[in-house]
Write a structure and sequence with these properties.
6-stranded mixed beta sheet
């Protein structure tokens, strides 16, 4: 400090009361840099900062913030120097605080969501109920119906005058019992007057439709080409086809996969305004906030980039919502209005091809087609990646670097060893030809799931430095994966702690937010006690993948509590990081503070 500053400081000390006695003049740090008083201080608390280091660095007892940003977090009595005349001082009474949860991978699917707009008449979407009955005769929704049960339900719903369309949720039993059936023909007969769409409720990548559904999605013309003989598949195998021995031609069989779902979903919500779709997001984000989630990355499936931007613009919520751009056609442009709060534009691509259609091995879709493909006699899925190697290389090359603030990040859906190998090979080529020659800075690329990648592929991903986004709720798919995939691939699915041991960057996303979603802390508890021992994670290792590491993967300044970071934190009703799965599972947020302001308080 200069002599002039020393004299000025002395004069202030002689003429003003002590700082803690009510002065509006901010104190100075030991270095002489003005730091200002805090708007809010919490002390006597158990604060998990999420930072690396020993327990003293990871845990603090007090935190101070001004405006939206953290001024100080640490231990001891230093917090007192941040208290001014208008500072709110709060005794934490030993409560546990953490950074807000950053959910790196979500899908809000309006066709299957409840609508907060009761007047719209779709409190449960357009679900056509398939009922099952308990031993005492009590009916309950059946989300794993057989083919015959679906046909019966569609016939009933087709006769409802007020119904506009019929949506069915199905699972493994439908795949098993629909073999040998041409869904386009038979479900069109069951529902000749209503659009009928089925969605795989267990895995999410399978969809079927009747003729009216394919027409509503703009795929076939029922007047000129009712069987879709002339339909061109822009997604390289995402429409199921079957050989018709009577005509000698290939026809649509009613199945659609992955990206091909988008036009169906768009058709199902075509009667909803952008404001009504935004209301679905608002309601879902309300639930997410109550679970301690303060940032969400959503992949919009109800239309193209412009539709996504229009809906996102109408969402106003404390939770940071970033909607990824999903270019579906060569002319699709990702609008800058989809950039996140941190200025990042997320672009989503799919490299998984149609492998899910036959539920086979990703490198050989037809091991036993008569058993694995739910189509007529000799199904013809033109499997393989939906992106050419050139397209994939361009998607990777278009990604910016993770050191850039205003950048573009590429998200690539990879499920199955074949798609992971294709992506890694393309990335290695891009980095070799256009990279910096160093590991850092990395391109802002994430592999969504990367399931079934073997140890060699995982090692190559680690060398690239790309992050993997894993979904803990996919644990529910273990039985499905074991029954439909080669043992060599199934053994490499659902990796969690082994990713950490192999030094891969990885983060978590919940796959769904809203009324039916599993809270992230409950998902983490399952990773602590409900996976094989070699994949079990500690409370802290898993929690940072849902906070700090998710924020890094999505290029956000969030997910930890430190100087200059947003004052976004959650107070829990217990210490969810005690190391005990039961504490993690039972924890509930009491209060959520987003950028310095209380956004949620438990009733």
């Amino acid at each position: 400090m200069s002599l002039r500053r020393l004299l000025a400081a002395a004069l202030v000390c002689l003429t003003a009361p002590p700082a803690l006695a009510g002065s509006d003049t901010p104190p100075e740090s030991a270095s002489g840099i003005p730091r200002g008083y805090a708007d809010h201080v919490i002390h006597n608390a158990n604060i998990y900062t999420g930072q690396d280091g020993d327990a003293l660095g990871r845990w603090a007892t007090a935190i101070a913030w001004r405006g939206e940003d953290i001024l100080w977090v640490g231990r001891g009595s230093t917090w007192q120097s941040y208290v001014g005349p208008r500072t709110v001082v709060e005794d934490g009474h030993g409560a546990t605080y953490t950074a807000g949860i950053v959910d790196a991978h979500e899908h809000k699917v309006p066709p299957f969501d409840s609508f907060p707009d009761a007047a719209h008449g779709r409190p449960f979407g357009d679900l056509c109920p398939v009922l099952a009955f308990a031993p005492d005769g009590t009916p309950y929704p059946n989300f794993d119906p057989t083919f015959d049960e679906v046909v019966s339900a569609l016939q009933g719903c087709n006769g409802e005058a007020s119904r506009r369309r019929s949506v069915i949720l199905f699972g493994a039993r439908f795949y098993a019992t629909s073999k040998g059936h041409n869904l386009l023909q038979e479900l069109s007969a069951a529902s000749p007057n209503k659009v009928a769409v089925g969605f795989d409720a267990t895995e999410g990548h399978g969809l079927w439709g009747n003729r009216l559904a394919f027409a509503a999605a703009g795929i076939l013309n029922p007047s000129t080409d009712p069987n879709g003989i002339g339909v061109v598949d822009p997604w390289s195998g995402f429409y199921g086809r079957v050989y018709n021995p009577y005509t000698g031609l290939m026809e649509l069989d009613g199945w659609a996969q992955e990206l091909a779902q988008v036009p169906f979903f768009a058709a199902l919500v075509s009667d909803l305004s952008d404001a009504q779709l935004a209301a679905v997001y608002q309601a879902g984000l309300d639930v997410a906030l109550s679970q301690g989630v303060t940032s969400v990355t959503d992949i919009f499936f109800a239309g193209g980039p412009q539709k996504a931007a229009a809906v996102r613009a109408l969402v106003n919520h404390p939770v940071d919502l970033t909607v990824a751009c999903l270019p579906l056609a060569p002319g699709d442009v990702c609008p800058n209005s989809l950039r996140s709060r941190s200025g990042v534009l997320l672009q989503k691509y799919f490299a998984s091809g149609a492998i899910k259609s036959c539920r086979g091995w990703s490198k050989q879709p037809y091991i036993t087609p008569d058993l694995q493909c739910p189509s007529v006699s000799t199904p013809t899925w033109y499997g393989g990646p939906n992106l050419s190697n050139f397209d994939l290389e361009w998607a990777i090359l278009s990604a910016g670097y993770d050191t850039q603030e205003y950048t573009t990040c590429t998200m690539i859906h990879t499920f199955g060893a074949a798609s992971v190998e294709q992506v890694v090979t393309a990335a290695e080529k891009v980095e070799r030809l256009y990279g910096t020659g160093q590991r850092l800075p990395r391109r802002c690329v994430t592999l969504e799931h990367a399931d079934m990648a073997n140890s060699s592929l995982r090692f190559r991903v680690a060398l690239l430095g790309y992050a993997i986004i894993q979904n803990p709720p996919h644990l529910a798919l273990r039985g499905d994966i074991n029954s439909h995939y080669q043992p060599s691939e199934a053994a490499d699915a659902l990796r969690f702690d082994s990713l950490r041991k192999e030094s891969l960057r990885f983060a978590f996303g919940g796959d769904e937010f809203g009324p039916n979603s599993t809270p992230p802390n409950v998902q983490i508890a399952a990773l602590m006690d409900s996976v094989p021992a070699y994949e079990r994670m500690t409370a802290e290792d898993a929690f940072v993948r849902y906070t700090r590491e998710s924020a890094i993967a999505r290029h956000e300044k969030a997910g930890l509590l430190g100087l200059g970071y947003p004052a976004t934190l959650v107070r829990w009703d217990r210490n969810l990081l005690s190391g005990q799965a039961e504490d993690m599972r039972a924890a509930k947020p009491e209060q959520v503070i987003v950028r310095g302001k209380v956004a949620f308080s438990a009733p």
